[in-house]
Structure prediction request, 101 residues.
Amino acid sequence: MEKRCRAYLNQSNDSWRVDETYVKVKGEWKYLYRAVDSSGNTIDFMLSAKRDAQVAERFFRKALKACHNRTPRIINVYKNAAYPIAIAQLKNQNYCLMIVN
Prediction:
């Protein structure tokens, strides 16, 4: 799915919205992390068995290195306590990010 979708993703803008949801994949429940820009363009997505700061950081790294994405000016997140921790870790590693809850 990743390889098929990647070619159709549009250039994103610098205002991101990030959240996760719980979905059933092949009979198992997984977390679907997703990010869209303020225009509704898909930035990135990722399936994970866990919902913690380490996974959130891995998702942000994946989204930031995609070639169709701009570095975000602002990231809106929705009540997951793992996001501020993940973004703080990325800031310590010289990623320029700002978070809004």
